[in-house]
């Protein structure tokens, strides 16, 4: 009985460390630069009010990463991961042409 409990504890600790790893990597994630090739291709701006409205007419004032379906940041956080940029951090007030309105 004690051996199986020990195994359980070891397995649980191992699982916990594996589960926590992605969170730690996220904390180390770098911010997406506007000069990043993908960012340039998609017109990413760290401040949505600076979006080139002539080039991206689909942009509507008020759209930001915070209310984009792809944004993975926590509510109130200044930035969060975005899968479009491989999980790098995008500014919560940012925008790019991959924007999908959160429903
Ligand atoms: Fe922001 Fe959405 Fe573009 Fe990602 S896909 S940068 S969350 S607007």
Features:
103 residues, mainly alpha, High-Potential Iron-Sulfur Protein, Chain A, two-stranded antiparallel sheet, 2 helices, binds iron/sulfur cluster
Task: Explain what you see.
By secondary structure, the chain is mainly alpha-helical. It has one domain: High potential iron-sulphur protein (High-Potential Iron-Sulfur Protein, Chain A). Strands 1-2 form a two-stranded antiparallel sheet. The protein is built from 2 helices and 2 strands. The termini are far apart. Residues 8-25 have low confidence and may be disordered. It binds iron/sulfur cluster. The site of iron/sulfur cluster has 13 residues, from loops.
Task: State the gist of this model.
With 103 residues, the chain is mostly helical. The chain has helices at residues 2-28, 37-42, and strands at residues 79-81, 89-91.
Q: What low-confidence regions span 5 or more consecutive residues with pLDDT below 50?
A: 8-25
Order of helices and strands: HHEE
Q: Name the ligand types.
A: iron/sulfur cluster
CATH architecture annotation: Irregular
Helix content: 25-40%
Question: What is the mean predicted local confidence, pLDDT?
Answer: 83
Q: What is the terminal-to-terminal distance? A: 50 Å
Question: Which sequence of strands runs across the widest sheet?
Answer: 1-2
The secondary structure category is: mainly alpha
Q: Beta-sheet strand percentage?
A: 5-15%
Number of helices: 2
Shape: globular
Full CATH superfamily name: High potential iron-sulphur protein
Overall number of structural domains: 1
Fold-level CATH name = High-Potential Iron-Sulfur Protein, Chain A
